[in-house]
Design goal:
Elements: E1 5-13, H1 17-28, E2 33-37, H2 43-48, H3 50-67, H4 82-92, H5 99-107, E3 111-114, E4 116-119, E5 124-128, E6 134-145, E7 149-151, H6 168-173, E8 180-184, H7 188-199, E9 203-208, H8 219-231, E10 235-238, E11 242-248, E12 251-256, E13 261-264, E14 266-269, E15 273-275, E16 309-311, H9 322-340, H10 357-360, E17 363-366, E18 371-376, H11 379-384, E19 389-395, H12 400-405, E20 412-418, E21 423-431, H13 438-446, H14 451-454, H15 467-476
Parallel strand pairs: 1-2, 1-6, 2-3, 6-16, 8-9, 8-14, 9-10
Antiparallel strand pairs: 4-5, 5-6, 7-15, 11-12, 12-13, 17-18, 18-21, 19-20, 20-21
Helix pairs in contact: 1-9, 3-4, 3-7
The protein binds flavin-adenine dinucleotide and nicotinamide-adenine-dinucleotide.
Residues 154, 184-190, 192, 209-210, 215, 270-273, 320-321, 364-367 line the site of nicotinamide-adenine-dinucleotide.
């Protein structure tokens, strides 16, 4: 329980996927690095987000895949074995123990400091340890804030706190299947968790205040995912707002603005995220406690002099995705290393110290049935950014590989082509198992591969990837953008 400052080259606050990647890069460059973690090394993603949620969803996709093909359909004898799915989920969440990730941190030579860290002025970090003690850490070169986000509950909804709603944490870790589940919010967490729990046997109602799902994707993605959820038995309601909740006798009564009422064993609020910055000591370095941390492309925090403070991953609000946080971690780690070695940063677009892909080519897969996968800009986003684009759509079910994959394959693909630059700036695929199609599109967008060259990237027959050929043909035969 020492209060003597410990000196490190780099101090990382938050040992989620982002913080781990910063530490990996700074350790690889020989910089001494401490990682401060208040809960579990591995962060939200490993225990209450990506891994457990995908472990809940994968069996439903496997079952749907078997049911979609004559021959294997007849071999399906019943519903999912929920107990087996939950046990497999527990194993993917490492039973909420972080020994494996702690061993990895040790293997790269980083020092793990358990406790809650906060800034106490430039380069100074105070850690409150679980035993009630304090440790003071000083960073010679950089502090990286990688503290992620937490779920947000709306304010002013009567009875919400007393109803003890699920957030993403309970939705990904529940040991039992509620008989009925109301899900509030039509973003990614809402649709994925509605799909998972319906497949596990809950009767799910999804309440969406707007007119569509997945508002950050092309509109057809939300439409096809809504159709898939409805076909699976989810009661999807648009324009639906909750006016109050009441929990009694193990059941929550949910009152709706249209005068209706729903009852369910659990209610999940999937209504967005807030940064974990309210107790980070931001005011001690001239920033505002509780804010998202605005950064430049190398993830250096704006408004802080001296190039010592970085904010990486969800907490900077650039792209709330594990793979983008890890990418930023690699880039910020390289930037911290360059500065520590007295080298200038190379921050031009697509340079080694610029997280350009966050805005130009971040991929995302929504693991519902059908899946929705997108990269880069939507058609509307590209037009809003002032680009002259041509948009080409194609029905995935018309591809030979897709009809082999499922007897009644339904899905759609879209590419958004920048007419002045002659390459893709966005692509979206919706359909069963399209997530694995996405990386080709990411390479095309990030590599700015000219369409003329894409004609030479021949998709193997009969794979679903033949969609690429059909999209190119449809582009060739369509009218140029105005
Ligand atoms: C239900 C759900 C499913 C998701 N599924 C996917 C998916 O399939 N694919 C995908 O790419 N993304 C997914 N995401 C998003 C993904 O979880 C995040 O983008 C990712 O976890 C961000 O990583 P991070 O390291 O920035 O933050 P986090 O993972 O949140 O890690 C931050 C860490 O910092 C620690 N911490 C916080 N404050 C302090 C402090 N003061 N001192 C010390 N430690 C502190 C926390 O304990 C935590 O361990 C999902 C999110 C949710 C909610
Ligand atoms: N497969 C994946 O990649 C994956 C899975 C889950 C989460 N994530 C990431 O995690 C982040 C958080 O996801 P999320 O779904 O929690 O947030 P989100 O911001 O994507 O969606 C929240 C939704 O809730 C709605 N909402 C907000 N307040 C509301 C209210 N009071 N009543 C009703 N609806 C309300 C919003 O309109 C929005 O549609 C996302 O940015 C996403 O990228 C990714």
């Amino acid at each position: 329980m020492s209060t003597e400052p410990e000196q490190y080259d780099v101090v990382v606050l938050g040992g989620g996927p982002t913080g781990e990647n910063v530490a990996d890069r700074t350790r690889a460059a020989g910089l001494s690095t401490a990682v401060v973690e208040s809960e579990l090394v591995g962060g939200e993603c490993s225990y209450w987000a990506c891994m457990p949620s995908k472990a809940l969803l994968r069996p439903a996709a496997a079952l749907a895949g078997a049911r979609a093909v004559a021959g294997s359909r007849e071999a399906v004898r019943g519903p999912l074995d929920a107990a087996a799915v939950l046990a497999r989920r527990d194993s993917f969440a490492s039973h909420w123990k972080d020994d494996g990730q702690v061993s990895w941190l040790e293997s790269i030579g980083a020092v793990l400091v358990r406790g809650e860290g906060r800034l106490e002025g430039p380069r100074q970090v105070l850690v409150r340890t679980p035993d009630g003690g304090e440790r003071r850490l000083t960073a010679r070169h950089a502090v990286a804030l990688c503290t992620g986000t937490r779920a947000v509950l709306p304010s002013g909804v009567p009875g919400l706190a007393e109803a003890r709603p699920w957030t993403s944490r309970e939705a990904t870790s529940s040991p039992t299947v509620p008989a009925r589940l109301v899900v509030v919010g039509g973003g990614v967490v809402g649709v994925e968790m509605a799909a998972a729990w319906q497949a596990l046997g809950s009767r799910v109602t999804l309440l969406v205040r707007g007119a569509g799902l997945l508002p950050r994707m092309e509109p057809f993605a939300g439409e096809l995912v809504a159709a898939g959820l409805s076909a699976a038995g989810v009661d999807v309601r648009f324009g639906a707002s909750v006016t109050g909740l009441r929990r009694a006798d193990g059941v929550v009564a949910v009152s709706l603005a249209d005068g209706g009422e729903l009852t369910a064993e659990e209610v999940l609020y999937a209504t967005g995220r807030a940064p974990r910055t309210e107790a980070l000591g931001l005011a001690s370095v001239g920033l505002t406690d509780g804010d998202w941390l605005a950064v430049d492309d190398s993830c250096a925090v704006r408004g802080v002099d001296g190039g010592w403070l970085f904010a990486v991953g969800d907490v900077n609000h650039r792209a709330l995705l594990t793979h983008q946080g890890k990418y930023q971690g690699r880039i910020a780690g390289a930037a911290i290393t360059a500065l520590a070695q007295g080298r200038p940063l190379e921050t031009a677009a697509w340079g080694p110290h610029a997280a350009t892909a966050d805005t130009a080519g971040a991929p995302q897969v929504v693991f519902t049935e059908p899946e929705a996968a997108s990269v880069g800009l939507t058609a509307e986003g590209a037009r809003r950014a002032g680009r002259r684009v041509r948009v080409v759509d194609y029905e995935l079910g018309s591809i030979a590989g897709a009809s082999l994959q499922a007897d009644d394959y339904r899905g759609r693909a879209r590419i958004v082509v920048d007419e002045d630059r002659g390459h893709l700036v966005g692509a979206t695929f919706v359909g069963p198992a399209v997530g694995e199609l996405l990386h080709a599109a990411t390479v095309a967008v990030v590599g700015e591969v000219p369409l003329a060259r894409l004609w030479h990237a021949v998709p193997a027959y009969p794979t679903v990837s033949e969609i690429w050929l059909r999209l190119l043909e449809a582009y060739r035969d369509s009218a140029p953008a105005e």
